[in-house]
Design goal:
The complex is a heterodimer. Chain A is of the alpha/beta class. Helix content of chain A is about 45%, strand content about 20%. In chain A, strand 9, helix 10 (about 260-270) and strand 10 form a beta-alpha-beta unit. By secondary structure, chain B is mostly helical. The chains are: A alpha/beta, B mainly alpha.
């Protein structure tokens, strides 16, 4: 009897879920093009905002949007599976934020073979890997992380009067996004001879790791008076570590992403600044571009989404 | 009993496929089924090693980290232009040695497998990060990628490799004395020892098999992504344990089959694929997959209790 029971349970589970899913299934909407948006993850406010922007654009333009993401941001193999599976459903365009700039190319080869146009969002493809595999993205929609890092660096130089001991919290090594921000920051502070980078360690984009790594950094280098974190989650972790060391206010923390929590900290004065990206705008532009490609219209190769430095003056 | 259990899991898989066939026109196509088989291959192979370990009443939490370590060593050898055969041999050796270290600590050190493999999980991960400085390794000759993109007829290479691994492992488990000892150790370790079996040696071997399987999975993963990542394979231990347990292997050891494990891995693969095709939210997907694991084990326990009563 157990055979039957297990079968029934599985059927019940799948049936329950399929009744629950948001929006109509792809197959039931003939004539209405379906665009897939594959994100790195959905457990980060940044990507949740991106989905919101994309959904609004999809509703406005009358296309069906399928949003999928891996459970964990770094799981590029899972992201690859999602792309492979979505190609099976006959999507007309694929917008993707690659979890790995090189690794995802293998999946995009399959999209190309299925003649699905590709829109790359937020994180660039590795140009060499893409060229080697013959993968061509219709466009890249995103802000320039290098420029953002530079913005943060220039701000820090100005805010410290050109004299600072900086600790840096890096993202996951080898990821295009974090590497570009880091390069931008380093280039911006290069000119200021009295600004020294005393420590630079990865905290893998995570808040708790930002806390731990910065706490250790502060132990080893008590002279640190400024922090650049390649993302706000790590910056917020560092803020906790600073507060635990009773040094709130004496260390200038500059982050990236302008998350709500970070903006609040900036308004309260515990954090100095953050570089704002506009993920909802990216999602919107990505879907609009995909629709244009489906209609056979021409779009630019590179669409820059604005960046903005949030400081106490403009934080809400 | 065993056979019935395995049969039950198979019926679960067929029922799942049937439901997906009704719900979406994209599921039951040749290209999608091959797609699922290819996606399942990595977890299925890691689960072979996990089945050996769990059959012997052990557990191996280090498989995902060994996947990463073998993968980056393979990647570095290939990047530096070593011949393919040499690179593969070194990668597999890394897996076997890592597994054997687990096994020796567990058998000769008389330590609990959970603790030992928890430790080596961290050590192997750290080693993978250390040798690569945390960066992915890439830049391989095109010939290597055949292991992922190649086809025999219309069947993808990873599926062929998986089939070969299962056939071989099944023969080892059912036709060799080593295989019998795996069951015996899991059934009653003390009795097995008293009957003169070199339990320690065989236990160490079991973990070496698990390490080898992780390395084979690493080869496919590296070829698939065309890159070796030191952060690859996180949580693979949980997927492999899930496939093994859904497949009817008892966590108490001594009971289970590789056929069951393969079906267990396929259930997870089909479920993920189907939920993607249906456009189910990523969050709900996690709940469903977790639910299936719990229900499978629950049914197993309830039925065994009935059986005994």
């Amino acid at each position: 009897m157990r055979n039957v029971t297990l079968g029934l349970v599985v059927i019940a589970a799948v049936a329950a879920v399929s009744c629950n899913r948001g929006g109509p299934p792809v197959a039931d909407a003939p004539g209405k093009p379906t665009i897939a948006l594959v994100l790195k993850t959905l457990n980060h406010p940044y990507f949740v905002d991106m989905r919101r922007g994309a959904q609004e654009a999809a509703d406005r333009l009358g296309v069906t949007l399928q949003v999928q993401a891996a459970e964990r941001e770094i799981d590029v193999e899972k992201q690859m599976q999602i792309v492979e599976n979505l190609i099976q459903t006959g999507i007309q365009a694929l917008a993707i934020t690659p979890s790995g700039s090189r690794e995802i190319v293998s999946a995009l080869v399959k999209a190309r073979d299925a003649k699905v146009p590709i829109i790359v969002v937020d994180t660039r493809l590795d140009p060499k890997a893409a060229a080697d595999a013959g993968v061509h993205a219709e466009t890249f929609v995103g802000s320039d992380n290098y420029e953002g890092g530079k913005l943060a660096g220039e701000y820090l130089v100005k805010a410290t009067g050109g004299k600072a001991h900086v600790g840096i919290l890096e993202g996951i090594p080898g990821h295009e996004t974090g590497d570009s921000r880091l390069r931008g920051f380093r280039d911006a502070v290069k000119g200021a001879t009295a600004v020294t980078i005393v420590a630079s360690q990865p905290a893998n984009w995570e808040r708790d790791q930002g806390f731990n790594v910065f706490q250790n950094m502060l132990q080893a280098h008590p002279e640190i008076d400024s922090v650049f974190a390649c993302s706000d989650l790590m910056a917020l972790g560092a803020l906790e570590a600073i507060s635990a060391a009773h040094r709130t206010g004496s260390i200038k923390v500059v982050g990236f992403d302008a998350l709500d929590d970070a903006k609040k900290a900036i308004a309260e004065g515990t954090m100095a600044a953050s570089v704002a990206q506009f993920p909802a705008e990216m999602g919107r532009v990505a879907i609009e571009s995909a629709v244009k490609v489906i209609r056979g219209e021409k779009i630019p190769d590179d669409i820059k989404v604005k960046l903005e430095l949030v400081t106490r003056d403009n934080a809400k | 009993m065993n056979r019935a259990r395995q049969f039950g899991t198979l019926i679960g898989l067929v029922a799942l496929c049937f439901v997906l066939w009704i719900l979406t026109p994209y599921f039951l196509t040749v290209s999608n089924l091959l797609n699922v088989a290819e996606q399942t291959s990595i977890n299925a192979i890691v689960a072979v090693g996990m089945t050996f370990v769990i059959l012997s009443a052990g557990i191996d939490l280090s498989v995902g980290s060994i996947v990463a370590l073998s993968g980056v060593i393979l990647g570095m050898a290939l990047r530096d232009g070593q011949p393919l055969m040499l690179a593969l041999t070194v990668a597999l050796a890394v897996g076997v040695v890592s597994g054997a270290v687990n096994g020796l600590l567990i058998s000769h050190g008389d330590l609990p497998p959970f603790i030992v493999t928890l430790g080596t999980m961290s050590i192997a991960r750290g080693a993978a990060l250390l040798v690569t400085e945390g960066r992915p390794v890439s830049g391989f000759a095109a010939s290597f990628r055949v292991l992922a993109t190649g086809r025999v007829g219309f069947v993808p290479a990873p599926v062929i490799i998986t089939a070969a691994v299962y056939l071989l492992a099944h023969l080892v488990l059912t036709r060799t004395t080593f295989g019998r000892y795996v069951y015996a150790i899991g059934g009653n370790e003390e009795a097995t020892r008293l009957s003169g079996v070199a339990v320690r040696f065989h236990k160490a071997m079991i973990y070496a098999v698990s390490g080898l399987m992780s390395a084979v999975a690493a080869v496919i993963l590296t070829a698939r992504l065309n890159s070796a990542q030191p952060i690859a394979g996180m949580m693979y231990e949980l997927d492999a344990i899930a496939a093994t347990v859904i497949g009817g292997t008892s966590l108490m050891g001594g009971e289970g089959t590789l056929g069951g494990t393969l079906v267990g891995a396929l259930i997870m693969g089909v479920l993920r694929n189907g939920l993607n095709l249906l456009g189910v939210s990523s969050f709900l997907q996690q709940i469903v997959i977790g639910g299936v694991i719990v229900v499978a084990v629950l049914l197993d326990t309830v039925l065994k209790r009935k059986h005994r009563a």
